[in-house]
User: Which sequence fits this backbone?
């Protein structure tokens, strides 16, 4: 669906069902130079299990217009305005990688508007390797290759996709290639410039779930556990053998962790 | 200095798509000889059927053994995903059915496999899909043939049987400017020699029966999605960009992004048409793919020796091999296929049809049959077999003469192959000129 935020066209996938602001809502926020499509399984699942779902394309990403923001705080503010534009007073926030920083900040800034909080591959700070950042600034192909290399566990680089016939390396690379020049660099710079995750974490009032990859080299598991300890009401799940790209590497385990957290009554 | 140390081609040939079996630790890919899969609960089942979670439902749609084959070929071709099919022809039909509806049009190279020609010329028109054939050496001809209703440009990396080399980068530019994708049959080259996605193709198919398997024991096909084509931007592909009632209004392009085509091909194409690969065949084909780069290097090495022998033989009128200076596509072949032009090629025997008949019947190591890409050397006479449905004009347009013989050079010792060809050529020459020989 399309809606308007700050006067600009914004896209969100709704998981195959119409978005109804009267129902409990989940806002999914993707990582750097990604888009809504990384959430296709959980978006469809929760849309068919009682939620209204908006897997949002950040400005300048996917099908949304505008320029990509260059600071996490800026994106968190934008997310709050997107929530308002969707007619929501309160929503579950879920973010992956850079998206986890955005929803962490959004939850800290507006506790009343945040239902539960789900952080996938988060960290209190996300330093970015200089060579990766430089390559992204040059729109050099090397940036995409490095993200593929660091974003998947060594095991996942060989494959074994749970969705039959899909090749993780290729899917991730094509998604990054779709981003306009400068979008990846903007996202990585925003991650590199973010450093007050612990302070933000302490301000979170929402019940929080962190989903961590045991073999995550981009946001190591230990950092995620430390972040969890700073959030007043948090629990974490570690996905065995998984890297940073848990939505591709462990789609069902990721979905199950979210389901158990968001649908506590079970099914 | 950091480098992305992603697994390379030869490693992917052996490993891509497979983790040691989680149940048994089996190193080889097990054959999951099962039709169906137990659902742990009703919600799990419902979510699998509604594309809300990953997994297998029924082997017509997916199977763990077949999925390894699919993922491995997607990795080797550099795509986002693949769908295995019952044959190469099923892969071509699946591509067409996923891309277009009645009223659509295809622009195809004229030099294609006879079975593909049959589908385009005789079968698809009954369903409202028509085809215009063009010279694969003339990118301008592709451009001129494109109509508003054209939905794909189709060609083979190496034309059949003349080994015309398509200028894929140029043709892809033309197609993309018109908002349509390029589908390449990469059977003759295999990804070990040529990866069409690196040169602008959007979709790739194989008859896996040929070099991918290499053993001649299993029929199969595979359709690979490069994930590069922007279906929404084109606006010509409602099957991918508009809600599909067959899955509760799913919009494949919106929901799956770069994987839209391959998801639709499986979700609709295998579900409804059902031309799926058996897990046993997937297992056989995986065994072949594991040695693909090694085999292809040897195939090319042997083919070069055979071509050198034939090119200097008095009983041979010409040899059609893009690496020869006499071939019109030699420069393009050097640029696009530096690893070699495969191991299937044609040559013409002096003396016409009778000489061709004697030649084929006298061969001992080369097997006369309708296949290529086997580890064993093969031979066929296209005018009387694979391309027999084509009339004289179509044969001429495809560069197929009465004395044309197609070889598929295998992995035997090249000296033995040359000896076999030499004795058969001598017999053919005697048959062509019996009185002179006397």
Assistant:
């Amino acid at each position: 669906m399309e809606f308007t935020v700050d006067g600009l066209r914004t896209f969100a996938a709704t998981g195959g069902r119409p978005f109804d602001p009267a129902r409990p809502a989940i806002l999914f926020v993707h990582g750097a130079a990604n888009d809504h499509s990384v959430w296709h399984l959980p978006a469809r699942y929760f849309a068919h299990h009682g939620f209204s779902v908006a897997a949002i394309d950040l400005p300048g990403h996917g099908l949304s217009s505008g320029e990509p923001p260059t600071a996490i705080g800026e994106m968190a503010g934008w997310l709050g305005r997107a929530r308002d534009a969707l007619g929501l007073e309160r929503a579950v926030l879920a973010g992956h990688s850079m998206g986890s920083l955005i929803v962490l900040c959004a939850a800290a800034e507006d506790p009343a508007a945040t239902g539960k909080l789900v952080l996938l591959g988060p960290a209190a700070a996300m330093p970015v390797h200089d060579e990766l950042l430089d390559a992204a600034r040059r729109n050099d192909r090397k940036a995409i290759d490095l993200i593929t290399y660091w974003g998947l566990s060594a095991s996942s680089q060989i494959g074994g996709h749970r969705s039959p016939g899909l090749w993780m390396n290729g899917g991730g690379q094509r998604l990054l290639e779709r981003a306009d020049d400068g979008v990846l660099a903007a996202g990585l710079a925003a991650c590199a410039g973010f450093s007050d995750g612990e302070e933000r974490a302490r301000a979170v009032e929402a019940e929080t779930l962190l989903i961590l990859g045991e073999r995550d080299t981009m946001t190591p598991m230990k950092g995620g556990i430390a972040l969890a300890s700073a959030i007043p009401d948090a629990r974490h799940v570690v996905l065995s053998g998984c890297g940073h790209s848990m939505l591709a590497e462990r789609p069902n385990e990721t979905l199950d962790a979210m389901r158990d957290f968001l649908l506590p009554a079970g099914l | 200095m950091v480098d992305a140390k992603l697994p390379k081609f030869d490693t992917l040939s052996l490993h891509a798509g497979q983790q040691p079996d989680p149940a048994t630790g089996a190193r080889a890919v097990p054959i999951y000889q099962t039709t169906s899969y137990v659902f742990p609960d009703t919600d799990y089942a419902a979510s699998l059927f509604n594309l809300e979670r990953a997994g297998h439902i029924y082997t017509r749609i997916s199977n763990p053994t077949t999925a390894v084959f699919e993922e491995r070929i997607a990795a080797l071709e550099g795509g986002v995903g693949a769908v295995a099919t019952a044959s190469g022809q099923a892969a071509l039909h699946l591509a067409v059915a996923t891309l277009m509806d009645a009223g659509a049009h295809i622009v195809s190279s004229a030099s294609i496999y006879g079975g593909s020609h049959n589908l385009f010329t005789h079968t698809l028109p009954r369903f409202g899909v028509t085809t215009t054939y063009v010279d694969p050496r003339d990118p301008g001809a592709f451009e001129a043939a494109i109509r508003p209703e054209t939905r794909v440009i189709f060609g083979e990396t190496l034309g059949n049987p003349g080994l015309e080399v398509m200028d894929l980068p140029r043709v892809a530019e033309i197609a993309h400017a018109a908002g349509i994708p390029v589908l390449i049959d990469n059977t003759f080259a295999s990804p070990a020699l040529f990866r069409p996605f690196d040169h602008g193709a959007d979709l790739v198919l194989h008859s896996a029966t040929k070099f991918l398997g290499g053993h001649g024991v299993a029929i199969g096909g595979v359709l690979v999605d490069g994930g590069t084509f922007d279906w929404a931007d084109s606006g010509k592909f409602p099957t991918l960009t508009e809600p599909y009632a067959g899955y509760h209004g799913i919009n494949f392009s919106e929901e799956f992004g770069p994987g839209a085509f391959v998801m639709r091909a499986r979700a609709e194409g295998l579900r409804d048409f059902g031309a799926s690969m058996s897990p046993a065949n997937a297992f056989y084909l995986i065994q072949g793919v594991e040695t693909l780069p090694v085999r292809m290097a040897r195939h090319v090495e042997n083919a070069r020796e055979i071509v050198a022998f034939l090119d200097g033989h008095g009983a041979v009128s010409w040899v059609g091999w893009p690496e020869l200076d006499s071939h019109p596509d030699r420069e393009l072949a050097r640029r696009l296929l530096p690893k070699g032009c495969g191991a299937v090629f044609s040559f013409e025997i002096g003396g016409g049809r009778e000489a061709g008949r004697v030649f084929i019947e006298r061969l001992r190591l080369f097997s006369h049959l309708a296949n290529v890409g086997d580890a064993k050397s093969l031979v066929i006479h296209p005018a009387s077999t694979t391309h027999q449905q084509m009339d004289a004009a179509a044969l001429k347009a495809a560069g197929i003469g009465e004395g044309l013989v197609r070889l598929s050079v295998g992995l035997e010792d090249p000296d033995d192959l040359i000896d076999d060809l030499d004795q058969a050529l001598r017999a053919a020459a005697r048959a062509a000129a019996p009185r002179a020989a006397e």
